Amino acid sequence: MTSLSASEVLRPTELVDLVQPDYVVARFERMVSDRNLMNMLFYGQPGVGKTSAARLLLKKIDMDVYEVNGSIKTGIDQVRDEIEKFCTHYSIYGQPKACFIDECEFLSASAQAGLRGVIEKFREVRFILTANDIIKLHPALKSRCMPISFDPSPLQAEEIISRIAPRYHLKLEDAGLEIGDKALREILFTEFPDLRRVANRLEFEALPRQPSAVLNGTTDLGMEHNSDPPSISHPSSNDWSTAY
Asked: Is 32's pLDDT higher than 80?
């Protein structure tokens, strides 16, 4: 059994793992194939995989990336002294360049104004921004990026869960963990799209895999195995702050 947490085990490794409908995944795959990224703004509630999606895209295109935590570096000095400086310099290995600003809604008004100018000035550099609260972003900054929602509709949620459930099963098995199909789907449908809550539930409820796995409703110890998860109470979404 792996020592990794469920969040690490289930972290997206392929674009099909993302909380996005098939048509958006197809657009992302085309960008990777063409190595031509758009300026994009990923927005949605905490825990839905915005940060992981941005890093995965940038990794697959093999870009020269400058990453900024917008909740820490919030002022105009960071835009002028760090981001613009990165955009000015050539990539050592000739890679396409990208600036990734996580939780960009925390940037000050002056920093957002400065960032708009940088995006306009350095057209050869791509920008990916993430935000939990898109309302806090200036309209002029939002208009410079393609907005991608990570809050799927109920119809999209069914499509996404059907796609990622088998992949979650395989990842859990590879990590030495086991959970029934019914229990996995109950967790996904209850907690989706908050992948952080999904991971916490699975880490709590999944069982270590034994050589003689669960058969006919009993374990190798002869004990009854209940694939239905216990009822778990959860904190509100405001309690989740670490980027997934």
From this structure: yes
Edge-first strand order for the sheet with 146-149 is 64-69, 97-102, 126-131, 40-43, 146-149
Show the domain range for 219: 154-227
Each residue's pLDDT tens digit, 144-173: 999 999 999 999 999 999 999 999 999 999
CATH number reported for the structural domain that contains residue 60 in this entry:
3.40.50.300
C-alpha distance from residue 85 to each of 91, 122, 165 (Å)? 12, 11, 43
**Burial class of residue 235, CB neighbours in 10 A (0-12, 13-18, 19+):** exposed
Of the candidates 85, 71, 70, the one whose C-alpha atom is nearest the C-alpha of residue 125 is: 85
Q: Determine the Cα–Cα distance for residues 161 and 217; give it in Å rounded to an integer.
A: 25
Angle at 43 between CA 192 and CA 185, to 5 degrees: 10
Check: pTM over 0.90? Answer yes or no.
no
Q: What digits encode the pLDDT tens for the residues 177-209? A: 899 999 999 999 999 999 999 999 999 998 887
Residue 118 carries which side chain, given as an amino acid letter?
V
Quick check: 50 and 33 in contact, CB under 8 A? no
Considering the domain architecture, whether residues 75 and 31 belong to the same structural domain is answered as yes
> 98 and 58 in contact (C-beta within 8 Å)?
yes
The answer to whether residues 115 and 206 belong to one domain is no
Q: Who wins on pLDDT, 26 or 206?
A: 26
Tokens matching residue 113: 């104004």
Tally: H helices and E strands in the chain: 10, 7
Q: How far is 219 from 216, CA to CA, in rounded Å? A: 8
Which residues make Cβ contacts (< 8 Å) with residue 146, sequence separation at least 6?
38, 39, 40, 41
